[in-house]
Design a protein that fits this description.
Layout lengths: L7 E2 L11 H7 L10 E2 L3 E2 L5 E2 L2 E3 L2 E16 L2 E8 L7 E5 L3 E9 L7 E3 L20 E2 L2 E3 L5 E6 L6 H7 L2 E7 L1 H4 L11 E9 L13 H5 L6 E4 L5 E7 L1 E8 L6 E5 L5 E6 L2 E9 L2 E3 L4 E7 L6 E6 L12 H5 L3 H4 L10 E13 L21 E9 L8 E3 L11 E4 L2 E9 L5 E5 L5 E5 L14 E4 L3 E9 L9 E5 L2 H5 L3 E7 L1
Parallel strand pairs: 3-17, 4-8, 6-9, 8-14, 15-18, 17-25, 26-29, 28-35
Antiparallel strand pairs: 1-2, 5-6, 6-7, 9-11, 9-12, 10-13, 13-14, 15-16, 18-23, 19-22, 19-24, 20-21, 20-23, 24-25, 26-27, 29-33, 30-32, 30-34, 31-33, 34-35
The structure holds CU-O-CU linkage and copper (II) ion (2 copies).
The site of one copper (II) ion has 5 residues, from loops.
Length: 509
């Protein structure tokens, strides 16, 4: 354990005290120039404040301010950042199914932005997508009714074409949606104690302490990747567990990196939810892979009292999910994983979990979590196909869906309210893409004709589509029609999104 308080910059400060190999390995990479890596001491995990808002005329209201700030991810190092009601990231908003909420979003970052409620089923005018721009100095106040299952959602900037840099600098936060039924299942739900949000974000720091963004060609082609992992904005965090059962709610809040998460002793854990709600029943596993914007809750048992490290590595998609050919062979695997071309370090220590001496006993957890309808594609009235494309030109390419880049003035698809559709997402490119659709929680029917993994059989709003794969989704469009305001569908690799891998659809009556 490193107890030294001073900040050691790069490899050249060995005189002050050489960091242990473990710490060095988790903060720096061989590709890095001296002076570009900071070494941080271990810190307690930061848990974002949780807000319940204020009831005003029966409406739960939140006042959210987009602002500039300075963060100290490393002691004594100032990093200019963006945040919501704070210097970096935003508070967790706690809301309940069935109530009406109002978000008062004031923008004071000196440039236009938006705030999108990712995963929410709501009217297009309240979505916070690229058409709901909030100019510097203005306040946007959408209202919507919470029509979700209980789960963890999030909010983030969706400003075309600067979503990537704005989210990277910190414009994101969490939303806990709760309801009575899920609250009575006996699941851990003491926020920050046994129910702990884990926002994963990789960042690259310049020698001046600033975030580095988009400086390499790979950053634009493959998406921005960093060599330092921030967990809720904490570098090298540890967490003292006061209970035998710990519920971790993961959000991959990174611009483009995928994480394969598991524990240092390979202990198994249970996944209990996916993006938009609880799974039918807990799924036991030893690792879980999350693409950008995906969420999952897991339950891990700490009753043996032993400290354990939550770790992450880079998933490989060559053949793992039936991708085959392009994976390991031709491209050498490195490109797929992002190791070789994605820039640096791909294994991270995520969270050092230390079970406390006087822990509370484990909570008994029920076997059935949620009643999920069987996803029946025969009731779909229409099938649409979306083919992802990357122009492989030198210096960065054009990112497309069905051969076209995003155009704010073009509505690509029009769907009828009250219907179900099958959407096929096809990925002929050589890297995986996390595909996201606004307004709906969908179900995954199959991947290249094979059933989805057990952990992705529940409600989803983002699906990772590996190279050479064809994923079929079942969607339902309900409640809100608006012929004039579109929703988005896009790759949630934010650099791909900003480069045009996005389209628009309207729901009409
Ligand atoms: Cu997470 Cu279109 O957004
Ligand atoms: Cu979204
Ligand atoms: Cu993409």
């Amino acid at each position: 354990m490193i107890t030294r308080r001073s900040v050691v910059k790069g490899f050249l400060s060995a005189g002050i005290g050489i960091p242990t190999a473990g710490v060095l390995a988790s903060c720096a990479t061989g590709q890095q120039l001296p002076g570009q890596a900071f070494v941080g001491t271990q810190k307690p995990l930061v848990v974002p404040d949780i807000l319940t808002g204020e009831m005003r005329n029966g409406v739960r209201s939140f006042d959210l301010g987009l602002q500039r700030g300075v963060s100290n991810f490393f002691d004594g190092v100032d990093t200019p950042t963006l945040g919501i009601n704070g210097a970096y990231l935003g508070p967790t908003l706690r809301i309940r199914v069935g109530e009406t909420v109002q978000m008062n979003v004031a923008n004071n970052i000196g440039q236009s932005s938006t705030l999108h409620w990712h995963g929410f089923h709501l009217p297009a005018r309240a979505d916070g997508g690229p058409h709901q721009v909030i100019r510097q100095g203005q306040t946007w106040s959408p209202q919507f009714t919470v029509k979700q299952r209980a789960s963890m959602f999030w909010y983030h900037s969706h400003m075309v074409p600067r979503t990537g840099p704005q989210v990277y600098q910190g414009l994101a936060g969490l939303i806990y949606v709760e309801d009575e039924r899920s609250g009575n299942l006996g699941l851990a739900q003491e926020y920050g104690i046994d129910d702990v949000p884990i926002v994963l974000q990789d960042r690259r720091f310049g020698s001046d302490g600033r975030f580095e963004y988009g400086t390499l060609m790979h950053d634009r082609m493959l998406g921005m990747k960093g060599d330092t992992l921030l967990v809720n904005g904490t570098v090298n965090p540890h967490f003292v567990a006061k209970t035998d059962t710990l519920r971790l709610r993961f959000l991959n809040g990174s611009n483009s990196r995928m994480y394969k998460l598991g524990f240092s002793d390979r202990r198994s854990f249970y996944q209990i939810s996916s993006d938009g709600g609880l799974l039918a029943s807990p799924v036991e596993m030893i690792s879980i892979t999350l693409g950008p914007a995906e969420r999952a809750d897991i339950i891990v048992d700490l009753s043996d009292g032993r400290p354990v490290m939550l770790k992450s590595s880079t998933p490989s998609f060559g053949g793992m999910m039936g991708g085959g050919m392009m994976g390991g062979g031709m491209m050498g695997g490195g490109m797929m994983g992002g190791g070789m071309m994605g820039g640096g370090q791909t294994n991270f220590d995520v969270l050092d979990i230390r079970p406390d001496e006087g822990r509370k006993r484990a909570i008994v957890q029920s076997g059935t979590l949620e009643n999920l309808e069987f996803p029946d594609p025969t009731i779909a009235v229409k099938t649409r196909k979306f083919t992802l494309g990357m122009g492989m030109m030198m210096g960065g390419g054009e990112m497309t869906i069905n051969g076209r880049s995003m155009d704010m003035n073009r509505v690509d698809e029009t769907v009828r309210i009250g219907t179900k559709e099958v959407w096929i997402i096809e990925n002929p490119t050589m890297i995986p893409h996390p595909f996201h659709i606004h307004d709906v929680q969908f179900r995954i029917l199959d991947r290249n004709g094979s059933p989805p993994l057990p952990g992705e059989t529940g409600l989803k709003d983002t699906v990772v589509v590996p190279p050479r794969e064809r994923v079929r989704l079942l969607l339902q469009f309900a409640d809100y029609a608006d012929p004039d305001r579109p929703y988005m569908y896009h790759c949630h690799n934010l650099e791909h999104e900003d480069a045009g891998m996005m389209g628009q659809f309207t729901v009409v009556s």
